[in-house]
């Protein structure tokens, strides 16, 4: 396959660049018939520019059937060449709409390959730094082209005569109302007459644009989608699942997927709205690719925000606001930031381990959640709240149960004890703000509180003072999740002595003989077994097995039509138990992540950190913190299950965690702290 740089930049690529909002990382488009026609029209126009076809108002003619070598154009060219009849341009545009998603996907990949766009986790794209600085993008090894928006705006605002390709581009852009995104309302109104004039300049552009315009109103070949009825589950269908009774949510949902399919209606409602579950790798891929256009997160979390006096939070935002918040906080949540503070992380971990005594047993979940909360409070918010961390975590736990999952009535957050614990939230905010003055933070590494307070100072309307406490509390909620995840990982390590021994050998090579490792010592090779242990533990025992969303625009998923206002339960981790994706999925097997197998890299297969634009911002931080903790636990102690025949139980609320019966005994202090 030829490299993208071997082809001229195509109209589809320039259309995507015109629709990309550099401030938000979003493509300003709504999937649908209109947009599909425009992307199909771009391919038809490029075939005309390549002298493979010719068009007039009555018909589209094949001029040259030889392939261009471009996988963006050749499938359409092949279909035209093999047709026994002659049709007009409108027909071929409508026929080509079936490829619109493929066209967009290939186009985005090519723009990344050309180093014009950078792809960011969560499904965002931004112009690369070189293009942003120069205003030009590379189109071949030695040639560049002025950035599309600059050229187009120059034509519209400065009466520059466009070249034929730009005239076609502007005709297509105008057909899908793209200039409404590109121009301010006043500028759009004043230049509309010129835009319409330019859109009629070129014969090819006029023919394609007219066909697209007609197609959006009266399609000739548009098929009526026959959607399937969504299967409705009964209470018995849920209770009859053994894995639900043992609280293995991912396994239970995968069994439902096998029996009923990828889209099912559940036998209960949330806020008077029906609840539909999406299950399996294909729906995971749909959420990753299209969720931003159809789903929002605000509804399920707004009551929890209100419990902390907030109205604008990272998990409750969507669209441009969500992207802006992620960009502002991504450095504070990054692996690199934690790596810079590795000595502190090791210190806080060892401070907790120092309290473990040989021969003593402890409750794993409570111990690990407290163990991690101490690290998070110091590293993320710069405040030692260890003396009331348990109260903060219990208040957050109760808030999640009442306001997100509805497992408890809301008055349960207003009991005298909860009111007393709620005061600790205010104490936490006051302590953070008091300790994060410029003088006190001088010379200290950036933490999350610094990033939040800086965002508030720079844009108090975007992040007002009333919303400051929630992100501070969210970091403590993260410690709840991470503590549970550490509990599952340590249990998995203890249950598999061969893995435990291999982790201990990695720990000894890093920490043995009094070594103080640096961040650069934690290479993929040096922590290989420990890293794969964490991956497999997160597959079998994901802390957040599903996500809630609300359908804001009617959508069709796997041929099932889901109406607006439906509550979606996205069971992204059900695919962790798919036998066609993970060999022997009930078996704990860290070798499934070796390069030869890499089962987790199949799109839609592995999703312990969520999907789409709301993928966990701190996932890379979490991976490093988990690895360091497990290595230090293995280096300093040898743990055993108490009792030895204990079988793991899972507490599913508010998020998955080992049940309270999981106890570990310190059989040996291998290396005193």
Core attributes:
single chain, 673 residues, alpha+beta, yeast vps74-n-term truncation variant fold, Cytochrome p450, 2 domains, five-stranded mixed sheet, three-stranded antiparallel sheet, 20 strands, 50% helix, globular
Radius of gyration: 28 Å
Fraction of helical residues: 40-55%
Shape call: globular
CATH topology of the largest domain: Cytochrome p450
Q: Span between N and C termini? A: 56 Å
What is the H level of CATH, i.e. the homologous superfamily of the largest domain? Answer: Cytochrome P450
Number of helices: 28
Give the beta-strand count: 20
Count of separate structural domains = 2
Low-pLDDT residue spans: none
Q: Helix/strand/pairing class, anyone?
A: alpha+beta
Largest sheet: 5 strands, mixed
Percent in strands: 5-15%
CATH class (first level) name of the largest domain: Mainly Alpha
Looking across the biggest beta sheet, what order are the strands in? 9-10-16-13-11
Assigned CATH architecture of the largest domain: Orthogonal Bundle
Mean pLDDT: 87
